[in-house]
Write a structure and sequence with these properties.
heterotetramer, A: alpha/beta, 10-stranded mixed beta sheet, globular, B: about 240 residues, alpha/beta, Glutaconate Coenzyme A-transferase, 8-stranded mixed beta sheet
């Protein structure tokens, strides 16, 4: 059975180490913030100048001077800090962001990421901070459904959409599997409960193999 | 005596000319100098190039300036939102030019102008369409593109506190682009919620030193873009 | 849990290796992490490259490190003062390498490393001997030289206040190089006069966010270099 | 009669406009700070991260965390601010420093400045912030004795010492005269009381002429 969006976010969140500095992309990756493992202190970065983002505030506590990159009201944890945009991207490019979790239109078997433009001629191009973050973070992973709404693979041999950054993605968390990327292409390291490797491979558009010791995603009770 | 306080929004706009490039602080609604933008509409300058992270929401602030037909070109990282109706229409009609810049590169180009350095090499956008036409060069193990400083004639920014020397503090994440834009313009105009006596801002806590600021105008109760959008939706 | 506090100066030194490049904050005595430098002598690492605005005074702090023969190369803007006796002697004996960098270029090269950008073009030093051997290029009306980011393995900085996440504030002009050096090292170690509870530093007033800091050590009463120089002069 | 060092500093200070942001070099230029015209608010910048420097403190009030570029204790005026070194030189190079007043070993008739090294083989090279400030300030002037201690001209046709920056100096204040630099070389615009143009020209090593309306430096009563 494929995972729900919250289950996908939960699974991704389990891999975030205590003490990590993390940027969560807009959309599905934002859900990761709701599933951070208890007992770990994880510092969320937002490119608009925040370290130490906390959860969404109560409706009565919303402050539109304290929003995340998705323009949604957030809170600040004790120990958090504000800084300007150039300092914010210094954290990103300067090697101080341990992990970014981004959404994707396509991920290639060589780690290329396409997540900002479908290249449609009538689309208004808009990139935000995705390119900077994909290149700057020490580790870049993707959280996305395994296929598009009309069933096309998002994990592909080569991206057909304009790239966000070449060769950056190390792991993809989908509703079907956890998939690493190595020199040989996609490697399934965990499968969603009830999903077989063949089903994943059939929905993948690039070279994929079953990893040694591939297990089942253990979801919370 | 140094007194950068200006009595009115209209007076603050006087240095702005047709064809100017203007930095506008803000990230979404947070930190956007909406009242300065409205004064700019009143002022009447045309053919402007606006540097702003987004492209305006609803029909006020930057969106109102766009709607008034004053903007020739937008330079931004993310000109798309659920409420960017005015920009969408102009762009699809071919009535406005757009330069999309990755957000971190946008910030760094602005800062480079403010720091008085020349072009710099940056890894961001290498291998993507946004690097098309740019000089690409390898240093060590990485490829870089050459990026140019982005200076403006005027910066319009929103601050929390100001004094007559132009020292500024900001509020929470509304700080965003304001400190670097203040550095990177020939003439920087700040709207501030509070004007305080000289010396009232702790010198350790000044975020933008007065040297980067030319004019300060008090706007005690700035418009909330969010509230305005909500109000517009009400029947 | 994030706890960057380290119990002792000696423990803080453990990541330092022979041959490391080390950023040291300070401008003259102001902001120099003298206790960290003394701990570095105890630690014993050799063949170091030190980036510091000056070249040490008297016989303590950086001067003591130089005197102990641990430094292969100094990168600084002004390695000369009335009290820089140790460096003078080593330099004249050919026992130390020196790279002189204009102070603003030094700061900008450090910041470029911290910001993760590549080389940048700068007007400073064009037409002078310090531009010899550097790529020179014209953009618009000006000539520029290409300057490279200056990253360190370790930064040793002095702060006023720190919390367990590594957020830092500084005191007056002792801030100088510390915030940019903290950004530009793989491992940043700060000595701080006060350690405070998480949340005790106003998030608007954090100068160096904890992301740039790896270890914090309390030095409640740092040595005054000035007092030490005075004392050394007394009969 | 040639001017004293304080008179030279006083004369220079009269040309600083109300509201100017100014950097004073180490040594003789530091004296300018003691002679700022009353009634003008002038903001002194120090490259170690200070705007709004005030006078030297009383001996009991010295704080070695608040020193100027010459490492001497100073004070901070209300309205002053502290910032880090990169921001400090952003002020310098970014066009926000109206004026710098520097010392000099040599100034050339084409505006070249040499003030950091005599090129002596045994000298330890040390440049500090002079190159950045000479290039960055909107206006660069020099305050210096007209000749060296052994009587050699400091105003020369071409600098023989290593340059600080080419073509930057607009005006030189000496103990003998105020000398502008234009396309034709040195132009004497004011003479010290009792000093004739010929005496100045004789002590100058480059093309020099008497400016139209050249007057006498009016010293304070």
């Amino acid at each position: 059975m494929s995972l729900t969006r919250d289950q996908m976010a939960w699974r991704m969140a389990q891999d975030i180490a205590d003490g990590a500095y993390v940027n969560l992309g807009i959309g599905l990756p934002e859900l990761v913030g709701n599933h951070l493992p208890p007992g770990r202190e994880i510092v969320l970065h937002s490119e608009n100048g925040i370290l130490g983002m906390g959860p969404e505030p109560a409706a009565t506590e919303r402050d539109y001077d304290l929003i995340n990159a998705g323009k949604k009201p957030v809170t600040l944890l004790p120990g958090g800090a504000y800084f300007h945009h150039a300092d914010s991207f210094a954290i990103v490019r300067g090697g101080r962001l341990d992990l970014c979790v981004l959404g994707a239109f396509q991920v290639a078997a060589i780690g290329d990421l396409a997540n900002w433009s479908t290249g449609a001629p009538d689309a208004i191009p808009a990139v935000g901070g995705a390119m900077d973050i994909a290149v700057g973070a020490r580790r870049c992973v993707v959280l996305t459904e395994h296929t598009t709404r009309d069933g096309k693979p998002k994990l592909v041999e080569r991206c057909t959409y304009p790239l966000t950054a070449p060769g950056v993605v190390r792991r993809v968390y989908t509703d079907l599997a956890v998939v690493d990327i190595d020199a040989g292409g996609f490697v399934v390291v965990e499968l969603a409960p009830g999903i077989g490797f063949e089903a994943v491979a059939a929905r993948t558009g690039g070279p994929i193999r079953r990893g040694d010791g591939c297990g089942i995603i253990a979801l919370p009770g | 005596m140094i007194d950068k306080r200006v009595d009115s929004l209209a007076a603050a706009m006087r240095p702005i000319r047709d064809g100017h490039t203007i930095h506008v602080s803000g990230f979404g609604e947070s930190g956007c100098p909406t009242e300065l933008l409205h004064a700019l509409i009143e002022h009447g300058a045309r053919g402007l190039t606006i540097v702003y992270n987004n492209a305006g929401n609803g029909h006020l602030g930057l969106a109102a300036l766009l709607e008034a037909g004053r903007v020739r070109k937008m330079i931004c990282s993310y000109p798309r939102s659920s409420h960017s109706v005015v920009f969408d229409r102009l762009y699809r009609a071919g009535a406005i030019e757009l330069e999309v810049v990755p957000q971190g590169t946008l910030a760094e180009r602005i800062r480079a102008a403010g720091a008085g350095i020349g072009p710099f090499y940056c890894r961001t956008s290498v291998g993507t369409p946004l690097a098309d036409g740019k000089e690409c060069r390898r240093f060590g193990d990485h490829d870089y593109v050459l990026e140019h400083p982005l200076r403006a004639d005027v910066a319009l920014i929103k601050a929390e506190t100001a004094d007559r020397w132009g020292n500024l503090t900001f509020r929470k994440a509304a700080r965003n682009f304001a400190p670097i834009m203040a550095m990177a313009a020939d003439h920087t105009i700040a709207q501030a919620r509070r004007l305080v006596e000289l010396g009232a801002i702790d010198p350790e806590q000044v975020v933008t030193p007065g040297a980067f600021v030319d004019a300060v105008v008090r706007v005690a109760n700035p418009i909330s873009e969010y509230e305005a959008l909500l109000a517009a939706k009400r029947p």
